[in-house]
Amino acid sequence: MSIAIIYGGTRKNGNTEMLTEHAIHGRQAERIYLDDYQIVPIKDSRHAKEGFQDIDDDYNLLIKRLLAHDTLVFSTPIYWFGMTGQMKTFIDRWSQTLRDLNFPEFKKQMQSKNAFVIAVGGDNPRLKGLPLIQQFQYIFDFIGISFDGYVLGLGNKPGEIYKDQQALSMVNQLFHKMV
Amino acid sequence: MSIAIIYGGTRKNGNTEMLTEHAIHGRQAERIYLDDYQIVPIKDSRHAKEGFQDIDDDYNLLIKRLLAHDTLVFSTPIYWFGMTGQMKTFIDRWSQTLRDLNFPEFKKQMQSKNAFVIAVGGDNPRLKGLPLIQQFQYIFDFIGISFDGYVLGLGNKPGEIYKDQQALSMVNQLFHKMV
Amino acid sequence: MSIAIIYGGTRKNGNTEMLTEHAIHGRQAERIYLDDYQIVPIKDSRHAKEGFQDIDDDYNLLIKRLLAHDTLVFSTPIYWFGMTGQMKTFIDRWSQTLRDLNFPEFKKQMQSKNAFVIAVGGDNPRLKGLPLIQQFQYIFDFIGISFDGYVLGLGNKPGEIYKDQQALSMVNQLFHKMV
Amino acid sequence: MSIAIIYGGTRKNGNTEMLTEHAIHGRQAERIYLDDYQIVPIKDSRHAKEGFQDIDDDYNLLIKRLLAHDTLVFSTPIYWFGMTGQMKTFIDRWSQTLRDLNFPEFKKQMQSKNAFVIAVGGDNPRLKGLPLIQQFQYIFDFIGISFDGYVLGLGNKPGEIYKDQQALSMVNQLFHKMV
């Protein structure tokens, strides 16, 4: 079983990354830092005659890297009580991939995966992060990925996540399941 | 009372726009089509020595247009059970504006406004759109905007929103409150 | 198509009942006022050797009345951000009925029905009533009832619901669907 | 700091009780097993001339026991994706106590407390139990109790909770906070 981490954060070594790496605990994993790449926001062309147009950015490359793994960890700081815009823009593009002849097996491939969500925020994340978890539940249900667990951590200033004993102990449990 | 509509959609005259214009009913309003502008995703620099760096894109211009109005209508198609990446990227940038010396009154100005959300989706939006509404509730609570109402509409193919009698009748009620 | 209204309220002619009757609009319907009956809280006996014991109260009679109809309207004032204890106690007993040899077709019969929820509260019900709607969603999904719509109304003092134009117009739309 | 556990379950030594006692870890605590007492469902009399009528059941005694403690642990199996009817019926009565001249300080006393929720269910509780947590959030916000943490555990058959390592490790963390 191989792991891909999709990082939605915009600050290297942020609290969310720290918590996620604590969960991974030195295991091998493919790390995709979305903010390092150019990902163009989707243009809804489902109903356009010509359909979706190919986009010359890094998205397809990232999807290929993601598809090569069994377990997906969506790791995002909580911005405005949701995933980051970078991560949402990435997921929005799945609508295009679902109709992309170059990825004819996209949905089927996704359905064989399982997913975890790790999200860290500074404002009562274990309560105010719940709509984000529910959104991920609908996302995973829609595409058919098994949603196997999540951790909501508390952190604001750099390193503060290490004070959140509950989150640290929860990701340890996630880790056991992942391996 | 003046109205700004923040459009998060990526298709002109889409169902969300139709429903919103049905609500506006010919009234004067400032229309901000986020997808027509360049909005760079935020880089979290709250903890960086040098702080946030000025970004040369259209965001500040759009915020100024938004701030000139009393009522904000956030109008977004439901993509993956949330607002569009375009709209999320726009809202994420508020974190920078809150610390931008060029907008010293940003939070205070926002607190004098009231907001509505109009969102249209194709997959059971009145149930599966609820996490999005809860997210907006936390967003508005955080910045201090009064959340005065929302409508979740059902639509997939172009024009389908006109079959959703419940949504049409609900936006009519929103409209009465807005004016 | 015949309708049963399950009333969870404890005050006759309360706002929730008014809104529901506005929706029904004089149509024939079976009205079950839970508070008028004795319904004993469930004793979880799923894992007891002897299983569930017959209970001598009004519950089975009410379930029979409910089962005779195609459309179920769950109508409850919002108490402490949920359905009333009376309604919850009634629904909890379904766990016993699911295992009751006198109701061998209970689940199958329920699965042929559709349901609506009407709930009225005094504290921002269209936002703070959303967990209740999500709970009903899971309840209906579990037993297999189709969840066809809901209305959250605002009312505190007797009759105040008639000022909630949005709720009144929404139940009118529900009504059209029901018939 | 003294602890009261309000047990909503209907089966002695059920999974929820096991998880809660694992959290308490032998500490002294007042245990209130709601199902052992007679608690009459509320009759909404806020708008009645004569107001609420005294009820001759065990409720007031239980409230006095609860009020004597600083920390409240609401411990309930998840029935139909919510708290048990027994617990809801108990909480509904708070509306009467808020207006009861024999408890003039009820709200003020409650506001000095902090609360935890422990809930165990058999059907994906960490996702499908979220509306219950959000309901408790609104309940505690309304009365002014500080909501200091929750654990959602997975268990169906007797003793199954001991397989849920994540829940066990989470309640250990709750426990550290409680003391």
Overall number of strands of chain A: 5
Number of domains of chain A: 1
- CATH architecture tag of chain A: 3-Layer(aba) Sandwich
Structural class of chain A: alpha/beta
- Major beta sheet summary of chain A: 5 strands, parallel
Query: Which fold name corresponds to the CATH topology of chain A?
Result: Rossmann fold
Count every helix of chain A, treating DSSP H or I runs of 4 or more residues as helices: 8
Terminal Cα span of chain A:
7 Å
Per CATH, the superfamily of chain A is Flavodoxin domain
Portion in beta strands of chain A: 15-25%
**pLDDT below 50 for ≥5 consecutive residues: which ranges of chain A?**
none
Helix fraction of chain A by DSSP (H/I, runs of at least 4): 25-40%
- Please give the most extensive interface between any two protein chains, plus how many residues each contributes: A-B, 39 and 39 residues
Shape of chain A: globular
Keywords (chains A, B, C, D): Flavoprotein, FMN
Organism (chains A, B, C, D): Gracilibacillus thailandensis
InterPro entries (chains A, B, C, D): Flavoprotein-like_sf, FMN_Rdtase-like_dom, ISF_SsuE-like
Protein name (chains A, B, C, D): Flavodoxin family protein
Q: Can you give a write-up of this model?
A:
The structure is a homotetramer of 179-residue chains. Chain A has 179 residues and is α/β, with parallel strands linked by helices. Helices cover 39% and strands 18% of the residues of chain A. In chain A, β1, α1 and β2 form a beta-alpha-beta unit. In chain A, α1 crosses α8. The longest helix of chain A is centred in the last third of the chain and has 14 residues. Chain A is globular. The model of chain A has no long low-confidence stretch (mean pLDDT 95). The interface between B and C is medium-sized, with 17 and 17 residues.
